[in-house]
Specification:
The chain is α+β, with helices and mostly antiparallel strands. It has five helices and five strands. It has a five-stranded mixed beta sheet with strand order 2-1-3-4-5. The chain is globular and about 55 Å long. It holds the Pfam family Suc_Fer-like.
């Protein structure tokens, strides 16, 4: 710890840290990013796309289902077609590894959001929403099939604790 930094060892931790329903670790193979990761590569990156969807005012923004997006220095998997630029990501606490998210269109980002990141069931506070709005905020397993090669991290042969 830096000297002179006050450290509260007695206070309650409740509400001191935001709770997240899911965390996305984006594989960048880099160890340094801008302070706002969504500005990396002039905003053309998975973190920016996900923050656009799940951040304040985003299509899937939900105060009862927060999604954290973090860059990691892990390398992305090598895509089957090297001419297609892809990104890989780890999902926690789902313990899923998404090896190939093509960066050629927004469709793969939507598939990740709708198939893996949205909640299976909405918080009871959403009961007053229209059925269409509730449907838009709920996970659709059909989208999972649009992302090839998604693996349980236990099947992948690693636990994130081994790599983080």
């Amino acid at each position: 710890m830096p000297e002179g930094l006050p450290l509260d060892r007695e206070g309650p931790l409740k509400a001191a840290i935001a709770g997240y329903a899911e965390q996305v670790l984006v594989c960048t193979d880099k160890s340094d990013w801008p302070s706002r990761i969504e500005e990396d590569n002039s905003g053309d990156n998975l973190a920016a796309d996900l923050k656009e969807l799940f951040g304040r005012g985003g299509t899937y923004s939900d105060p009862f289902h927060n999604v954290s997006v973090l860059n990691s220095s892990f390398p992305s998997s090598i895509p089957p077609r090297v001419e297609v630029q892809t990104t890989s990501a780890y999902l926690l606490p789902s313990f899923k590894y998404v090896p190939f998210l093509p960066r050629i269109s927004f469709d793969s980002v939507q598939a990740l959001a709708k198939g893996f990141l949205l909640p299976k069931k909405l918080h009871s506070a959403h009961e007053g929403l229209s059925p269409i709005h509730r449907d838009r905020l709920t996970r659709k397993e059909a989208y999972q099939g649009l992302l090839p090669g998604v693996q349980d991290m236990w099947d992948y042969g690693t636990c994130v604790g081994d790599r983080v």
